[in-house]
Hints:
Blueprint: H1 8-24, H2 30-66, H3 72-99, H4 106-113, H5 133-152, H6 157-196, H7 199-232, H8 236-253, H9 256-269, H10 274-287, H11 290-306, H12 313-326, H13 336-341, H14 355-365, H15 368-408
Helix pairs in contact: 1-6, 2-5, 2-6, 3-7, 3-11, 3-12, 3-15, 7-8, 7-11, 7-15, 8-9, 8-15, 9-10, 9-15, 10-15, 11-14, 11-15
Amino acid sequence: MGKKKLGLVPKLLLAIILGIIFGQLSMLPDFVIQIAVTISSLFSNFLSFIIPLMIIGFVVIGIADLAQGAGKLLGVTTLIAYSSTLLGGFAAYFVATHLFPLFINSDLSTAIQGSAPGLEPLFTIPLEPMLDVTSAIVFSFMFGISISWMRSQNKGETMYHLFGEFNLIITKVLSTVVIPGLPFYIFGNFANLSYAGSVFTILSVFWKVFASVIAMQLTAVALFFIIAGLYAKKNPFTLMKNQVPGYVTAIGTQSSAATIPVNLEVAKKNGVSAQIREFVIPLGATIHLLGSIITIISCVTAVLLMYDLPHQFGMIAGFVAMLGIAMVAAPGAPGGGIMSALPFLTMVGIDPTGTIGNLLVTLYLTQDSFGTAANISGDNAIAVIIDKIYHKYILQKNDSVSVSVENES
């Protein structure tokens, strides 16, 4: 048997712990900590460079794919998945803005912001992005919609494949450079936070946000199954019980794609017909992100409150709507959701490569597996609803048409 590799979450937790210890070692000269800070700074510069490219890689193909495909089922499934994602984001914002201020108060914000300044990197390498974020967003929407239109005219396959392969390149860079580099990035940042004296104040908030997010995800999934059960006239509690293997598998793998085989078996147990489950479950693994958006919006609201930054609904609403599209093309690897969300953090006033952006990434990744589990659980609720729609409105209608044609003949 081969050696079992350490997963991303244990690596991140280890990086946080070691970073805190490293920053607290008073016998170390400052330049030793600055080495770690320098590595984090270089990684941050690279992240700034790749963010506009991530927007193009994810959003162009995401929009082109969303608008493609024939049949009412695709449209209805996409509408339900996107609506679920939006509602999850808005609900998370509502809960976070009312619950989090109970343990993130003005005294805590003052303590975080009043901490001593951290150490500066030993050197920096200027690496300017090829495009700014706004230009990348406009470019992506323009090309995504245009490619979708061209494909409807039986054209544009070359452009579609060009951006599809560009998406693969960005995904490969994320999986081989960015994701593996995150523990080192987080280590350097937490070493600096520990050196500055603000880390323990921040961690006192993290675990409460973590618990709140998981509670919100479980509540959202339970409500989704109740709605699906009532609509399809199935026992919601049986549906939830059947989902347990899929939920546990998702926690272990941290991947929606890797959970598809188990989720298909769950859908079969729920009585979903083969043609519907084989269509909805793989599609839902890509476009339905209920758990991920609950996590991201909760974490974003938490860090905005911690640093006493604006967090009005109008600002968050645009961010939620954008994430619903951007995360569709997120890589299926652990952390894919937050990686696709990083480019749009500027919409809510967060620098994705700064201290606040780093805190957000860390908070998200430490519970990414639970977000994935909520995502794929919601997929089976959608499958139950779509199966009912298919048999009630589409299959019966086709049968009626066939009968009327036979009678006329």
